[in-house]
Structure prediction request, 379 residues.
Amino acid sequence: MKFNTKTIHGGQQHDLAYGAVMPPIYQTSTYAQTTPGGHKGFEYSRTHNPTRQALENAFASIENGKHGLAFGSGLAAIDAVIKLLSPGDEVISTNDLYGGTYRLFTKVFEGFGIKFHFIGMENAEKIESYVNENTKLIWVETPTNPMMNIIDIEAVSKVAKKHNVLLAVDNTFATPYLQRPLDLGADIVMHSATKYMGGHSDVVMGALIVKDDVIAEKLYFIQNASGAVCGPMDSFLVLRGIKTLHIRMQRHSENGKAIAEYLAKHPKIEKVYWPGFENHPNHEVAKRQMDDFGGMVSFVTKGNNYDEAIKIVENLKIFTLAESLGGVESLAGHPASMTHASIPKEEREKTGVVDSLIRLSVGIEDIDDLIHDLEQAIG
Ligand SMILES: *Cc1c(COP(=O)(O)O)cnc(C)c1O
Prediction:
């Protein structure tokens, strides 16, 4: 089955009870048993729920995995992955990381005796130099937020395999429409399904997808034992979102390209971060591992003026000033005062998050309206 069919049919069957074409929202916590243990595969909704299971099968299908697991948020999904580890274990993580992931690693799991190395992952030898006998996991996010750096998943997976270390990839920005990490050698794919998977900014959810039965069994155990599951209504909404993932991502990518190109020519813009440009430092890797470049675009203005950047995001009318990304509607964010405000200025500027950096989650509205909105806001 090809991707554009999988988004609609992958892992799905019509409802067994009445033949409902869309999976019903099984809003129930428990299931009747005829005799103790005599049930139809469902006992308690923390463990299993038919609506969540339909969604989990869809996750597995579109990422070319075998097992999908849905969680109450992206961070709950990451939390489950780190719970595969034990005190004394070490993780090598990219340093250009979603802020919430960094907070979970350093403020929660370091306290449980897990050691994290945050490094630039532009080359595989560098990653290998951090591997020792305690290394159990490599954590990759690509493209990164908000600098749109690209990490070569296949190259990292060779290092991981050589040293028998798990490789997990946060595929939130790309989605399986653009990039399928399991095919490139990753062991675990993670999503904040809050973003493109749900696609309509109406749900907070996380997902994990794996191929390996043993890893899956451990993760299912943690999912049930720790209990950070999502509800049936949210499962229904994300499953519905996935059915249009391919056409949304196609339009996000088209609009993202048009806006990146528009901004690159704008006399007031200093630099545009978008992996589709030939002069992007990892363009060749992006071209190899992604099918298109998506709808996330960041830029800085000439003069790098903080107040001017604030004015631009305030002046936008169609783009909404908000955190998050990946919905059908266009959003704009100012990392220095929003997502990265807690990081000291010198620290954030080292990674490129300067005062005038603006991040766009380009939606699927008419491109003329989006460009016109940027035009009037930038001036
Ligand atoms: C939003 C996000 C997360 C966290 O997911 P939540 O659903 O907000 O818990 C993790 N990684 C990336 C890249 C994200 O954008």
Observations:
- The two ends are 48 Å apart (CA to CA).
- Residues 103 and 109 are 9 Å apart (CA to CA).
